[in-house]
Amino acid sequence: MVVSERVLKWAMRLYPPLLLQRIWVVSFYEGYKGVEVKIKKSFLNNNYNNSIFGGTLFAAADPFYPLLFYQLFTKKGYRLKVWSKSATVKYLKPASTDLHFKVMLGDAEIAEAEDILKKVGKYTGHHPIDIYDKDGEICVSLMNEVYVRNLDFIDQNL
């Protein structure tokens, strides 16, 4: 279902798996070309080392590329199935403060994905996410593999 950036922002803010881990969507960019997210350090997501639990960090990053692709292409009239196919996570530094990150889709990335969806019917892409602490240092670096399937694709070679 296509919704406005504002509606999805509030839906994600109130979505229990994110809300209870103190993951806060600041905003979706116009046209679903990006999103800004904050992770508030709290007793709800603290681990025994007094840093943010790694599962919270992964949960914060996991849904956003698939959401952006889904909303962007559904708005263009595509019927899709989209999900995170895999991810690699590198914990570089303990997350002992509030964190933030941005996810961006460039016009070239979008055009490439759309071209592949039209020609092949499915797109798989690797997209990076770096999560920063309040001092601007990277605490976590992820590579999210996103799978997008065009449900209306008909192979012309059949």
TrEMBL record:
Classification via Pfam families: DUF4442
**What are the entry keywords?**
Membrane, Transmembrane, Transmembrane helix
Q: Gene3D superfamilies per the record?
A: Hotdog Thioesterase
May I ask which residue range the UniProt record assigns to the signal sequence? none
Query: For this UniProt entry, which segments traverse the membrane?
Result: 52-73
Tell me the InterPro entries matching this sequence. Answer: DUF4442, HotDog_dom_sf
Q: What is this protein called?
A: DUF4442 domain-containing protein
